[in-house]
Design brief:
Elements (H helix, E strand, L loop, with lengths): L1 H23 L4 E4 L4 E4 L2 E3 L2 E5 L9 H10 L4 E5 L2 H4 L14 H10 L3 E5 L16 H5 L10 H17 L11 E5 L12 H15 L4 E7 L2 H7 L5 E5 L6 H11 L6 E6 L15 H13 L3 E8 L10 E4 L1 E4 L18 H10 L25 E5 L3 H7 L4 E3 L14 E7 L8 E4 L3 E2 L1 E6 L2 E7 L6 E4 L6 E7 L15 E2 L4 E2 L2 E2 L3 E6 L21 E4 L6 H8 L2
Parallel strand pairs: 4-5, 4-11, 5-6, 6-7, 7-8, 8-9, 10-11
Antiparallel strand pairs: 1-2, 2-3, 12-13, 14-27, 15-26, 16-22, 16-26, 17-21, 17-24, 18-23, 19-20, 19-22, 24-25
Helix pairs in contact: 6-7, 10-11
This protein binds 2-acetamido-2-deoxy-beta-D-glucopyranose (NAG) (6 copies).
One 2-acetamido-2-deoxy-beta-D-glucopyranose binds next to loops.
């Protein structure tokens, strides 16, 4: 109860301080080009912000984590908005529960934070397809994403209008905390360089935002990025980490914005990790040094990310640099606030630097969140995926097709798709089984018995098989995340080419989708007698201690 009362007290404080500023001056936020700074209600201002994506943090923790961000001395929070989750199918918008963006922004305001909004439509963000809805690939398979492609633009415009209208009252000039709205994301890194597209996005957003917030772009700190990233009439900023010289980076911004505040929109406080890599780390001393150098130059800074969180479900993305590189479910990122929500040494080191430039709150005690001791959680097999009963409960209606269909062609976004065919002719033993376009990882089985793995990231696209006429060949394909960065973002999943055996194209497939977004129909009784081979469901249980539940109720 003590904590609860304390938080009501904070509310009333914030309400009165907002009331006072309303009386003193009309709410306004703008760029003071003359003095290379922002003006907040007419007063010189700069932000020290941190990225925290609401879709990577359970709603129950939003307030707590925002408060920790504020307590480090930050005065703003930055979040991407993920189109693919907010419009799961064309024209069907979702903004409630865990996707209640307005509530997140409202909590930020209550916790005394301004907001930098990054609505996309493309966000990269190490998310499946860079946050674009995969159904775009179904609507028009050769869609030219992130350009003035008529189909792409039609959907992007409808979404942006919907989204920006829904947060219009939360723009700073309209009484809310949103001071900055980003257009697209690092567009200068993309192959298209379509200025008609970026100008159109600007006009859509500007039409709703007006002068109630500042529009900006961000790009890599070099003229090769800014050349196509800069949009006429939108403030250009740069992003860079500890490995870059601060003055060189800001010189790049100055080539496109000769006057106005210096801004690093993505100061990398950590780094992302791909499957199979060691966890990436960014050294705290280097962060402290670079941060101090930027703040000494009066720059505004946004940490990317201040709290990473988790890529829940199947929503992690992938990179493609010489090979396909899927990203982890964890998005800890070596960020100042850990994935578990705890302040790290990096957090306190950053707070100390910020304190040299901005006032720190004096009443906040930041402690690690309570933890449970779950000991070892044992997993037991409960059911094989290929079991007829499980197929009926969790699989979609099987489809017949002469040649393989992609996930997108069968209207499935994530999870697994099973491709099965009966060999209708005889082949030499062994014969080479080959799928040049395997997206992304497949278990190959013969008559329900696993024989090996094909993998896009490992570049294993063929294997020898011993088969005869009448053998059932099965390929269970996992989508490991659509590419989120670069020129290959039209990243279809499943078998994206034919499969061949001994050089002959295999035909007459039965295709069963397992989206696995809802496994509540899976029966949950352990079956200790089940000796599994091949894909199966496992179950383990643990109990959440009551101290964790009661901790959450306070927020
Ligand atoms: C923009 O559109 C105009 C007219 O539709 C066209 O002439 C021009 O080439 C386009 N520019 C780009 C960069 O595509
Ligand atoms: C985008 O392209 C369409 C034709 O596809 C054209 O009518 C429209 O003017 C273009 N938009 C801009 C802003 O150039
Ligand atoms: C930073 O801003 C202050 C106050 O406006 C000014 O006196 C100082 O010269 C600025 N420093 C730099 C490096 O621009
Ligand atoms: C967690 O519980 C296990 C088993 O009860 C015990 O052995 C272990 O010491 C505990 N760990 C901590 C950190 O309390
Ligand atoms: C599969 O093979 C058939 C017959 O050769 C061909 O028509 C079809 O285009 C191929 N599909 C793909 C995705 O390559
Ligand atoms: C497991 O096998 C034993 C011995 O055959 C049998 O008694 C028992 O009922 C089986 N349990 C299940 C859950 O099938």
């Amino acid at each position: 109860m003590g904590v609860f009362r304390w938080y009501l007290f904070l509310f009333s404080l914030f309400h009165s301080s907002y009331a006072v500023s309303t009386i003193e001056a009309p709410r306004s936020f703008s760029i003071d080009y003359e003095n290379n700074q922002f003006l907040l209600n007419g007063n010189p201002f700069r932000y020290v912000s941190g990225s925290l994506h609401y879709f990577r943090v359970p709603r129950a923790y939003w307030r707590e984590h925002l408060r920790k961000l504020r307590a480090a001395g930050l005065n703003a929070v930055s979040t991407y908005v993920e189109w693919s989750q907010h419009e799961p199918s064309p024209g069907h918008f979702e903004f409630s529960g865990e996707l209640d963006l307005q509530h997140f922004i409202h909590l930020a305001q209550e916790e005394d934070l301004l907001v930098l909004l990054r609505p996309g439509p493309y966000i990269c963000a190490e998310r499946d397809m860079g946050g674009l809805p995969p159904w775009l690939l179904t609507v028009k398979p050769d869609i030219y994403l992130r350009t003035n492609d008529t189909t792409y633009m039609e959907y992007a415009e409808r979404y942006l209008n919907y989204l920006m209208s829904s947060v219009q009252t939360q723009l700073y000039g309209n009484g809310g905390p949103i001071i900055m709205v980003q257009i697209e994301n690092e567009y200068g890194s993309y192959k298209a360089c379509d200025s008609n597209y970026t100008a159109r996005l600007r006009d859509i957003v500007k039409n709703i935002v007006g002068n109630a917030a500042v529009l900006y772009t961000t790009d890599g700190a070099g003229s090769s990025y800014l050349r196509c990233g800069k949009i006429e009439g939108v403030y250009a900023t740069v992003d860079f980490g500890t490995g870059t010289d601060v003055d060189t980076a800001f010189l790049a911004q100055r080539m496109y914005e000769p006057r106005g505040p210096l801004i690093n929109s993505e100061f990398y406080a950590g780094w992302l990790t791909h499957w199979g890599e060691a966890l990436q780390r960014v050294d705290t001393d280097a962060i402290v040094k670079t941060l101090d150098a930027m703040l000494a130059r009066n720059a505004s800074v946004n940490f990317f990310v201040f709290h990473g969180g988790t890529n829940f479900g199947f929503l992690a993305g992938a990179n493609y640099m010489n090979s396909y590189q899927p990203q982890l479910t964890s998005y800890d990122f070596d960020a100042p606030i850990s994935e578990a929500g705890d302040p790290t040494n990096k957090y306190f080191a950053i707070k100390e630097v910020i304190g040299r430039y901005l006032p720190l709150l004096d009443n906040t005690e930041i402690t690690p969140a309570p933890k449970g001791n779950y000991s070892t959680v044992l997993l037991s097999p409960v059911a094989p995926l290929l079991d007829q009963n499980i197929r009926q409960k969790l699989g979609k209606e099987p489809l017949r097709s002469q040649f393989p269909l992609t996930f997108e062609e069968i209207g499935q976004r994530y999870g697994f798709v099973l491709y099965e065919t009966i060999l209708a002719w005889s082949v030499p033993d062994p014969a080479l089984f080959s799928i040049p376009g395997i997206s992304d990882r497949a278990i190959v089985l013969l008559d329900d018995v696993p024989k090996g793995i094909l993998s896009r990231s490992e570049k294993i696209t063929s294997m020898p098989l011993s088969v005869s006429e009448g053998t059932k060949i099965q390929v269970l394909v996992e989508n490991q995340g659509r590419i989120n960065y670069g020129s290959m973002i039209n990243d279809f999943k499943g078998l994206v080419t034919n499969a061949t055996l001994g050089g002959e194209v295999l035909e007459d497939w039965i295709i069963t989708g397992f989206p696995l977004h809802d496994i509540s129909r899976l029966s949950v009784s352990n079956n200790d007698n089940y000796t599994f081979q091949g894909p199966a469901f496992f179950q383990g249980t643990f109990t959440l201690p009551s101290l964790i539940l009661s901790h959450l109720i306070h927020f």
